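User: Continuing from earlier, I have the next pair ready.

Assistant: Great, send them over.

User: Here they are, in order.

Assistant: Folding the first of the pair now:
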Amino acid sequence: MASITNHSRYTVTVTRRPDLTKSFPHTAKGRANEYCESLRRQGLKARLSQGNDAWLVRMGSGRQRRSFLARSFDEAQHTVNEIEAQRARGLMIDYTVARKITFAELVQRYIDEECPRHKGCAVERYTLNSFLDDAYETVGRPRPLSPGTPHLSAPAPPATAPHAAPGARMAPQESRRRAAEGHRRLRQ
């Protein structure tokens, strides 16, 4: 289920000649071998070795893949055993899906799902939409809108039609207008 591979650098060393020591990345084993052989043809005692300080661990399959680097083989093996034990007990939480969601998508989802439940939905929606518009304008990309979400330039739709039955919830603008009329009457 897990594979552990050595990703440490290859090093070619020559006895009593530190000036000829050369390191190669873990992907360049062929070049390291060529350099070592060229030194041996010159009559030098060259030795090729791979370090022990970078181990790549790959776990899982399909969408459950995880990979990380460990500083030693023992550390890699210990981490693999710990993760497998957590999976067996059901304690493993996979955050890979959550890492793919942007903050803007979370705010948009909040606007679509939570705002309609609040009394100050219109103000909250206006404020959050302005945050998103500013953020996308700063980045220089057009803002993707989810279906049914009004843009800043579009007026908010009324909560109910003007000809709604008595007792039905009225639009915030209508409510404010009627409240202002009531205050005017009280002052007279």
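And the other member of the pair:
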Amino acid sequence: MALDPRGSCGFVGALLFGMALFLAPGVALCCTCATVAGSPLLAEQMPDIQRKDSVVFVGVVERLVPEIVDFDLLWRRIFREERPADPSFSQMRNFCLRLPAEYFTSVERNQVGAAKTKAELDAVLEKFERRERRVTLRIMETFGPHRRGSILVYTGYGGGDCGVDFESGQRWLVVAFRDTHGRISTGICSATGLAAERQKTIKSLRELNR
């Protein structure tokens, strides 16, 4: 059974997936990987490099946008204190407005700044689509008709949205999917993983790629 490497989740409508934990801590986050009973674990499944929409390679992470998706860490950096269990409206709005520019467009930032109550702030943020993390990797080894060089891959923020926890400088086996617009995405519902932990799969791919 072919898997969509992005997975799927029923939680939608938040500006930043991790930020939803601040705004609605009771919301249920999920990552549902469609597979069938008795099939191999996702990490052990052999990528189908014959699929026209598959993009499979070993690469090194060069750049992440945004670089940080740990919002507790961002809170500590901005306010130099731990995040309260239930941030006030003023704290939450100030946090949003003080995030680096890569998290919001100017229009979004203005809308956040115009909110007068926590309910209004929640309503503004819920109108936006969930963000995806943009990951640039340098291709070191490719399986299929792909050239070496840098490639941009999209994934979730993690913590429940099927996103891959990439870090700069790490070497990964990436099993991704290219949509009809050329956008390449991956998630934990695929064999994507640290290259050191996917040596068996990489060896099999090399044999297929001869």
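Worth noting for the second one:
Strands lie at 54-65, 133-143, 149-155, 171-178, 184-185, 193-194. DSSP finds six helices and six strands in the chain.
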